[in-house]
Specification:
By secondary structure, the protein is α/β, with parallel strands linked by helices. The chain contains 3 helices and 5 strands. Strands 3-2-1-4-5 form a 5-stranded mixed sheet, covered by helices on one side. Helix 2 (about 80-95) crosses helix 3. The longest helix is centred in the first third of the chain and has 17 residues, at about 15-30.
């Protein structure tokens, strides 16, 4: 009796379905990813090691202490609401167009109060913002 040897077929890995699945996953993640919107507030940060920035003749300064109290040109604002801060800024600004605005805050001030000051300035159309900093002693 003669037995035939069974021929072994070569194993082959078909990559076409795998490539299709990877491509579909790529499309899914590209479509479902949310992109960060750029901030509407442009900020000119002062350099700590450079020369002091030139200031204009009229400067509005918003100071924020570590309790979250606002001061506009050394006058305390009644509360920490955006509407009240906008009124105080508008009152100090008078009829001057786009004055330089300096935001000074205590090192321990919660970030929310700084953002509130920036938001009030943006709502009033002020784009010339500067943050006051101290130079480090070496």
């Amino acid at each position: 009796m003669m037995f035939r040897h069974a021929r072994r077929e070569e194993l082959e890995l078909n990559l076409t379905p795998l490539i299709d699945v990877v491509f579909l996953l790529l499309i899914f993640f590209m479509v479902s990813t949310t992109f960060n919107k750029e901030s509407e507030i442009t900020i000119e940060l002062p350099e700590a090691a450079g020369k002091p920035l030139k200031t204009e003749e009229f400067v509005l300064e918003i100071e924020i202490d570590n309790q979250g109290r606002f001061y506009v040109n050394q006058q305390r604002v009644k509360d920490s609401k955006v509407l009240t801060l906008k009124r105080a800024i508008r009152h100090m600004q008078g009829n001057r167009k786009n004055p330089q605005l300096i935001i000074s805050s205590d090192r321990n001030t919660p970030y929310q109060y700084v953002v509130t000051a920036m938001d009030a300035a943006r709502q009033l159309g002020m784009v010339n913002l500067t943050f006051a900093t101290k130079q480090r002693k070496e």
